[in-house]
TrEMBL record:
Its main location: membrane. Residues 82-113 are annotated as: Disordered. The keyword ATP-binding does not apply. GO terms for biological process: intracellular protein transmembrane transport; protein secretion; protein transport by the Sec complex. This is Protein-export membrane protein SecG.
């Protein structure tokens, strides 16, 4: 398994986790912490910090995703060379030629001028 394949698998996993963490959050500040009573003054067992954890995990996963993408870019060339036929200079490229249109000297009703 190449390094690029490993990075690709890690990128997919981190992207999935990032989507899950973002979907758990509520854009109005509620989210997971409000479902456990996070809006009140009394908190049970550290639920007050759930919003902070989700916020920090979002930033961590987003940073990890960017780092993995940049690192995978460095490993693309190490797997071997990729031949491009579009940039092949050995064969000259020729454009297809269309036949010239026949000149018709007739008027719109079909009679010659």
């Amino acid at each position: 398994m190449s390094a690029f394949s490993i990075f690709l698998i890690l990128i997919v996993i981190v992207a999935f986790l990032l989507v899950v963490v973002i979907m758990v959050q509520n854009p109005k500040g509620g989210g997971l912490s409000s479902s456990f009573g996070g809006g009140g003054t009394q908190q049970m067992g550290g639920v007050k910090k759930t919003g902070d954890f989700l916020d920090k995990s979002t930033w961590f996963l987003a940073t990890a995703l960017i780092v993995l993408i940049l690192a995978s870019n460095l490993t693309i060339g190490s797997g071997g060379t990729v031949e491009s036929k579009a940039l092949d200079t050995n064969e000259p490229t020729t454009l297809p030629t269309l036949p010239a249109p026949a000149l018709d000297n007739s008027t719109t009703d079909g009679t010659p001028e």
